[in-house]
């Protein structure tokens, strides 16, 4: 699929085949994440790539997402280092969100499926991941993306949001 | 280019050829923006697509971005309707950032170039766009993307951020 088609056909994928995700695929996905634009001089993000079955099995208790199948084949926790953006979350939230979108799109481009589970600003989920990974002070868990080969590949769904487009004036 | 290549090779493009951007291209880019995932039941975003030369010429005074060539062939102002996410900016900032990234990637996929200029949370730029478009109460200008055919297409630049990747533990 070409670049535009990847963007247009991506869907959230919550149910995965019982098939491992190769580390090489996760590494490509992380490269894509790190090509995302960011504000300022340095990106705020860190990524915890997770393929350890024991750690993966503890995720649903922290970050429940209705309909995500278990076991989860792989996951990426996107984190923000607040020390790199000391002015507050307004900009690092943008930077981390953009990197997370690249993860979703790259997974789709590689024939995988993924879904974004919101972590920030949910205090309970944030604390759960801080504890699970003993995150250092100032590192905020932002979003969890679960990744696997789709059990069923959802068909494209085009949103009819034409009322959200305005030409040259509100 | 395939989907992964589009993500990996995108660069910010600030200098544009003196060539108009067809409305059909902007419409495809907006379709891509609206395929972005969002939190909750309804997306917060609205898009003002700008190809009126008079309006475009007034943008640099509101939202200066070092190195963006003038005249700008086209632009999209991504806005958030706060009334759709009344719990505050934490989630609508994520949703709008993701839609903005899809705009950048779709422009690149179509052979165009684009650059994201931060608007939110810069109070002066936000006020400038609120006034330019007489935005209704609760509608926040979030980001401005300028779009055109690249004067020069920047070569891919791969970031070496391997220190930002952690496997299974911090």
Automatic annotation (TrEMBL), chains A, B:
The keyword Flavoprotein applies. It comes from the Archaea. Residues 7-52, 83-149 form the Nitroreductase domain. GO terms for molecular function: oxidoreductase activity. Keywords: Flavoprotein, FMN, Oxidoreductase. It holds the Pfam family Nitroreductase. Transmembrane segments: none annotated. CDD domains: nitroreductase. This is Nitroreductase family protein. It comes from Methanoculleus bourgensis.
């Amino acid at each position: 699929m070409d670049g535009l088609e990847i963007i247009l056909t991506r869907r959230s994928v919550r149910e995965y085949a019982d098939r491992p995700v190769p580390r090489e695929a996760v590494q490509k996905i992380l490269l894509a994440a790190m090509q995302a634009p960011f504000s300022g001089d340095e990106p705020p993000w860190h990524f915890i790539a997770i393929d350890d079955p024991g750690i993966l099995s503890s995720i649903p208790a922290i970050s429940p997402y209705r309909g995500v199948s278990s076991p989860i084949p792989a996951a990426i926790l996107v984190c923000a280092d607040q020390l790199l953006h000391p002015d507050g979350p307004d900009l690092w939230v943008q930077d981390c969100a953009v990197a997370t979108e690249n993860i979703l799109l790259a997974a789709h481009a590689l024939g995988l499926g993924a879904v974004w589970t919101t972590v920030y600003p949910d205090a309970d989920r944030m604390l759960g991941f801080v504890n699970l990974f003993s995150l250092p002070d100032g590192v905020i868990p932002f979003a969890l993306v679960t990744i696997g080969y789709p059990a069923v590949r959802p068909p494209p769904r085009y949103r009819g949001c034409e009322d959200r487009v305005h030409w040259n004036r509100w």
